[in-house]
Amino acid sequence: MRPTGIVRRIDELGRIVVPKELRRSLRIHEGDSVEIYVDPKGSVVLKKYSPVGQLKVVATDMAESLSASSGSVALICDRDVVIAASGPLEEELIDRRVGRAVEKAMAEKQALMVHFSGGGDASSILANDGPDSVAMISAAIAPIVADGDPVGAVVIGTTASDRTVGDLEESLAITAAGYLARQVE
Q: Residue 71: which of 23, 151, 138 has the closest Cα?
């Protein structure tokens, strides 16, 4: 653990305020759930709760099945990062932050098809983590909506500039997102 230098008092109801700067950097928003852990040394740890993250094994199996059936890269994301990936360069895709296109699909609760010509805008599907990071050029994105709230997304895409995704990949992403939503509920 790294120290933040932030000290807060607990009020008479046992509440503590998590500072705005910390919430922003950890992407914790009003209404989000957090898990509370106690480590062996007695430290209390707060971690943003990810209902999709609780399905890591199911998500990994789903990503592998989607990649095998579509011949494309398949990603399962929670609201912030990729939790499961399959296809070329899958190890480099795990824990990557989602980009603007995935955030938009989740916010609008609608499937989205995106195609880029490459270059700087390709990082819109996944956040750009550096000059050597993998960029997806074409993708079908379907939000995972549980109890009316977006909790993640399924992304089926390609990193090759000579190939784009189509209706098949969109249908697969929507079906997978629906299945994962039922698992979360």
A: 138
- Could you give all domains of the chain from N- to C-terminal order, each with its CATH number? 1-49 (2.10.260.10), 53-184 (3.30.450.40)
Nearest Cα neighbor of 53 from 86, 84, 16 is 84
Is 115 within 8 Å of 137 (Cβ atoms)?
yes
Q: Compute the distance between CA of residue 179 and CA of residue 48 in angstroms, rounded to an integer.
A: 23
Q: Is 9 exposed, middle or buried (0-12, 13-18, 19+ CB in 10 A)?
A: exposed
Query: What is the separation, in whole angstroms, between the first and last Cα of the chain?
Result: 32
Question: For 68-100, how does the pLDDT look when each residue is reduced to its tens digit (9 = 90+)?
Answer: 999 999 999 998 889 999 988 788 888 888 988
Contact 141, 153 (CB under 8 A): yes
Arithmetic mean of pLDDT, 17-28? 83
Q: Which residues contact 43 (CB under 8 A, 6 or more apart)?
A: 1
Q: What are the strands, taking DSSP E only, across 9-167?
A: 34-38, 44-48, 73-78, 82-86, 112-115, 138-146, 149-158
pTM, 2 dp: 0.76
Q: Phi and psi dihedrals of 9, rounded to 5?
A: -90, 150
